[in-house]
Amino acid sequence: MGDAPLRLVIVGHNPSQHAWQSGHFYSNPSNWMWRILRETGIAPPDRIRGAHDDRLMPAVAGVGFTDVGSGTPGTDSSQFSSADFQRWRPGFFARLAGQARRASAAVPGCSCGACGAPAVVAFSGKRQFTELFQLPPGSKGSKGRNSGSSGSAAASSAAAAASVAAAAAAEPGGGGGAEAPLPTGGSSSSDCGGKAAEVALQARRPSSVSTGRQWVLPDGWPLPLSTEVWVMTSTSGAAPMTREARLAPWQALADRLAQDAWPRRCVARCSGGIMHRGGSVAVAGDPAVDGGVGVAAGAGGGGGAASGSVAATNGGG
């Protein structure tokens, strides 16, 4: 996902076997992802040709990739249970929080580690989003496995924070220390992400989830609430739907992203809990343009396209 403030992070389920072997996100020819990104303009068609250009996306378009199940290849998503997602969750949350902290380091005056958080996180399918919530007590998860009860909200939040901190400490570059998730509530915001929205955090899984922006997020969500969360239609060729139905949510997302200039200009608004306007930084991420902050998509860190060797190098989950 790189080390600069991003407009968008696209979150997949887990790397397909094709993506794992090719070392590129969404590389299966039957997957619609790159056609959709180019057609909607999320990926500039004159700069991005397809999956083999995934590492250019952070610098060219401000778009990074990761998976909930990073580092665990498998084309048949039904082979993974709710228990697998609960096992993946701390590492996934730690990757999001870690990228935001690294990006925030480029924002002068930022001390909260959240000023450089991505503008939008978009899940390329409903399941990888809904599985981040806990099932009600006694419910059966995917493949008939019981995911356990949610417990009290306070206990759930504390457990989630502890799990993310432990995973962050284990991540390469994590510093060996236990870092808590980024601040999520209140009015904490930056000019990158705008003001925090009225978003609810809850442990229990919603009864239904529609595509588009989400207003209920899983307890322990590691990014500030100024980061929008969207759920998109699946780009898998195995998911039956019309071209129009598949494309519509992505076009809506493209229209949303068009509201944010790229490169992003982030302004620190935190200092010991006091909001203020600090210095700003334009993050183009394209050395050819400004000799500034260069970024590269971490294949293993993103997990969606990591061969075994790349995953070992970049810490794919």
UniProtKB/TrEMBL annotation:
Pfam families: UDG. The keyword Plastid does not apply. Residues 134-153, 170-195 are annotated as: Disordered. Residues 138-153 have a biased composition (Low complexity). GO terms for biological process: base-excision repair, AP site formation. GO terms for molecular function: pyrimidine-specific mismatch base pair DNA N-glycosylase activity; uracil DNA N-glycosylase activity. It comes from the Eukaryota. This is Uracil-dna glycosylase superfamily. It comes from Micractinium conductrix.
